[in-house]
Structures are given as C-alpha cells and as structure tokens.
Design goal:
Elements: H1 13-28, H2 33-41, H3 46-58, H4 65-78, H5 81-96, H6 104-108, H7 111-127, H8 131-145, E1 147-149, E2 154-155, E3 160-161, E4 167-169, E5 174-175, E6 180-181, E7 186-188, E8 200-201, E9 206-207, E10 212-214, E11 218-219, E12 224-225, E13 230-231, E14 239-242, E15 247-251, H9 257-260
Length: 271
C-alpha cells in the first residue's frame, strides 16, 4: 500500500559535519582515502561508523571485528543513549582540546574518545549481565589504549580525557556530566574492601594530570583538582584542591572548570 507520509531521515548535525570534513580531507590527502572511506564515508550514520571504528580497534585473533561490530550494532540499537553520549563526548573534545580542529579527529585518531566509547559498550554489556564480554572489552581497551575503566563504573556524558594515557577508573566510581581529566588520573580504592569503594565525581569537575582520587569520597560539582594531587577526603563544590594530601587552596575560579580547562593556581602574593 502506498504510504503518503515521506520518510524523513533524522537530523544529525554531528554526523553531517563529520562527513563534510571527511570529504574535504580525502581531497586534500588522497593517501588517507582508504581509511577515511572505510571509517566514515562508507557508512550512512554516526552509529554505524562508530561501531565499525571500535570493532576495528578492539579486534584481535581472539575476537574478530565482525563479532565486535555485531555486538556494537546490537548495543546501539537497544540503547540509543550510547551514541547520544558519544556525540556529546565528541563535541566536548572539540570544544575543550585546542589540538582538535575537526569533528572527525576524535573518531579517527583520539584514543581518549575511542576508549570512552569502548567503555560505554562494555558498560552496556555489564548491565545486561554479559560480564565475560564486558571484561573482554575492558581488557582490550587497556591493551590498545592504555586506559583501564571497569565496566561497572558509571560515567556521564560530555566527557573529555586529554591524552588518555594511564587512566584508571574503578568498579564503583561515578563520574558526572561534562567532566574533563588529563592523563595518568586514577579514581581508585584505598585497600582490599569489596564494597562501594571508589570516588564520586560531580558535574563540571576538572581533574589535572597525574591526580589520584582515592576511596569512597565525593568531589563536588564545578571543583578543580590540581595536577599531581592525592585526594583522600571529600572536596566541596566550586573549590580548588592541591597537594599531597590535597587541601583546599582556593575557589574554583569559574562556574564550569571542566569547560574552561584553566589549570593555573592563583596564589595571593605575600605582603
């Protein structure tokens, strides 16, 4: 029977921009055409492209890219929030990382973005009770990207992990929305306890390079943790902490530190 209602493709400005950038990139550098066509231009949607990219990165002799692609496609069909979060993460990287000049860069090249999307896939498997597959994804993310996020951790959207080397996030950790962190950050426990033992990071928090946040503590929204700090107790909202162990050294300095990415500590000169 004739359907009088035309089928309209959903608007996806992120995907439209990625494909436009990819087309220009192939024209500028034909030697990249194979990779860019296979990863972006061959696909009809962001979801399909992301599933393909993760499958190709995580595949090994133990698990083929075809199986991983089917798992990702199943996840994205069952839970569209996964790719909605991925879009928010991609825009976050573009807006906060001065080294990111195009939307297609995180999808193609940035291991922080790719690792977070692979974690999201593993977390979906974990919540579905498919724990062995979830742990396999965690293992491959650790091996390939140097990022170790337990699939039980809960992470919001708009996440930017810059450089993303040696990131560790434990099983009961919670990370809010629009959080930024740099390399070598640990959200870990303090011993062998087997309960709720990892940090709870509020929205809009900025965590500097090498910071360690340990134990079942809360880091308030819109706070800053200075590079190299070891945080062992709760951090109030909108504060800056620094040191070993970390102490409050001032206000956060702005309403959303994770967006400004300002990591300079303002000190009061001595009289």
């Amino acid at each position: 029977m004739f359907d009088p209602k035309p089928k309209v493709s959903p608007l996806d400005p992120v995907w439209d921009r990625i494909t436009e950038e990819a087309t220009r990139a192939v024209a500028d550098e034909p030697l990249m055409g194979g990779l860019i066509h296979a990863t972006i231009l061959h696909h009809g949607s962001f979801d399909c492209a992301l599933a393909y990219r993760l499958a190709m990165k995580l595949a090994s002799p133990e698990m083929s890219e075809q199986i991983l692609r089917e798992i990702a496609d199943e996840a994205y069909d069952a839970k569209p929030d996964l790719t909605a979060a991925a879009r928010a993460d991609l825009v976050a990287v573009y807006e906060r990382d001065p080294a990111c000049h195009r939307f297609m860069q995180p999808l193609l090249y940035f291991k922080g973005f790719q690792a977070v999307q692979a974690y999201r896939l593993g977390h979906w498997l974990y919540t579905e009770g498919r724990t062995d597959l979830a742990y396999f994804v965690q293992m491959r993310v650790s091996e390939i990207f140097g990022v170790d996020i337990h699939p039980g951790a809960r992470i919001g959207r708009g996440i930017m992990i810059d450089h993303a080397h040696s990131i560790v996030i434990g099983e009961t950790a919670v990370v809010g929305d629009n959080v930024s962190m740099l390399h070598s950050v640990t959200l870990g426990g303090t011993g062998k306890e087997d309960d709720d033992r990892h940090p709870k990071i509020g929205d809009h928090v900025l965590i500097g390079a090498g910071a360690k946040v340990l134990g079942n503590i809360r880091v308030g929204a819109c706070s800053r943790i200075a590079a190299g700090s070891v945080v062992l107790s709760d951090v109030p909202p909108c504060k800056t902490v620094a040191g070993v162990p970390a102490k409050i050294v001032g206000e956060a300095g702005c309403t959303q530190p994770s967006l400004s990415m300002n990591q300079i500590l303002q000190t009061t000169p001595r009289s």
